[in-house]
Amino acid sequence: MYRIDTSFVKAMEAIQEDLVTLDPVPWLSNATTRVHVLRLDRIHPLISGNKWYKLRFYLKTAKAQGKHIVTFGGAYSNHLLATAAACQLEGIRCAGVIRGEAPEFYSPTLKDAASIGMELHFITREAYRQKQVPGSFSEANWLIVPEGGYGIYGMQGAATIPVGSGSFDHICCATGTGTMMAGLLQSAPDSTRITGFSVLKNHHSLPQEIDRLLAPAARAYTIRHDFHFGGYAKYTPGLIRFMNELYDHTGIPTDFVYTAKLFYGVKALLGQEQERRSNLLVIHSGGLQGNRSLAKGTLIF
Ligand SMILES: *Cc1c(COP(=O)(O)O)cnc(C)c1O
């Protein structure tokens, strides 16, 4: 059993969408492009950023159908912890299926998820890869939320991210499963360009996965495959330096798995391009808890 830290539980009391801000970022802007950041990371310490939006309709459905929730993730998964926290807030029983054998010591993410009531089930990497749901989770009682919240509900929830209807002609976001990006493609005006920065290496099936959620009418968008820094959860000293530099100049904290790669990519592209005038929105999708896997002192925030 894990001791529950009461200050931590206190931070869990509510989801505060009204804390989301839209801030200008002069440090990223240049002569032709004005950059703003949408701070979704502010809504809750654990139900971070896009995860709340992607989960909201799964939660609603589980409640309406009187079901528990089971979902999937790795040992540092933002989605897993966000699901645990959201289910705790909503009073929904929940379980997490974790990739790999039960470790001797839980990661901080797993410890937190367990301490707020998520039941953890470890399955082999092979079973996980085949997306096997352990037999104890019958569909009669459990709503199965795919990894990362990927699915129609996830996309519909992401479509409620407040991207400021029409004020921006270009939106940039980090992409894992592409669920958030599909939601943005659904909700933003057709004239808004949308660029996703893939955090996985060679994730070339991503457009298909996005289009499957949007079928039949997918619209044009861009995915950058050149800012993954070696692949999922990989990083370089240069990325860490950039995170500290960004924070130093703007006060914006980022996580090394998703948003650092996004902001790095945006800065790099704006350094190259002398484009037509544009108003660019960068979505800070949260994920800061993942930085706990870095050695202490790595980051200045
Ligand atoms: C999960 C996550 C993403 C990826 O969202 P998808 O909908 O899976 O593409 C992006 N940013 C952060 C911080 C995340 O935690």
Can you tell me about this structure?
The relative contact order is 0.17. This protein has helices at 6-10, 50-65, 78-90, 108-115, 125-129, 152-158, 179-187, 206-214, 237-250, 259-272, and strands at 22-24, 33-39, 68-73, 94-99, 119-123, 142-145, 170-175, 193-198, 222-224, 278-284. It starts with 5 loop residues before the first helix and ends in a 17-residue tail after the last strand. Mean pLDDT is 92; it is low at 1-10. Helix 2 (50-65) packs across helix 3 (78-90), helix 7 crosses helix 8 (206-214) and helix 9 crosses helix 10. By secondary structure, the protein is of the alpha/beta class. The longest helix is centred in the first third of the chain and has 16 residues, at 50-65. The strands form two sheets. It has a six-stranded mixed beta sheet with strand order 1-2-10-7-8-9, sandwiched between helices. The protein has a four-stranded parallel beta sheet with strand order 5-4-3-6. The radius of gyration is 19 Å and the shape is globular. Residues 49-51, 78-79, 148, 174-181, 255, 258-259, 285-287 line the site of pyridoxal-5'-phosphate.
